[in-house]
Amino acid sequence: YYFAALDAFEGVVMKAMSADGAQATPQAGSEALAAWLLQSAGTGVGAEGVAASVVATCQDIDGALTPIIGPCGVAALFYRSAHLAAQRQPHLAGIHTGTPTVMDLGPLKLQLAGQAPADAAAAGALLLHTFKELLGTLIGPSLTERLLRSVWPVV
Whole-model pTM? Predict the structure, then answer.
């Protein structure tokens, strides 16, 4: 149900990621986020630290958005974002099965922890960037930035 409703926004999301309407390149928009994830994980920390940073950010997003759209809404956006991001980062493909009711971040943490730190940061950044863009198509970029600015500084 949730994926069917969000599927209608996929074309809009891809256009929103590109100002000129050309094919979107979310990797370019998530480079600063990947650098922030590596920095927040700490110097010398491996992929496990990056994965923990991504998971902590997802938990902060959940905390910020659950009072507004509910846990099912946050989970639906999260898993839809993962589905879209998995087209460019296959590591994200298997993090969810079934109907989303809450975000289960265990599979995401396992997938990212098994990568090189830079790859984990790139995949996590793409996921978070895609989430931000998808949310922006639903509530607008200004409100999205206000809601997510408290979660990560490079919105």
Answer: 0.77
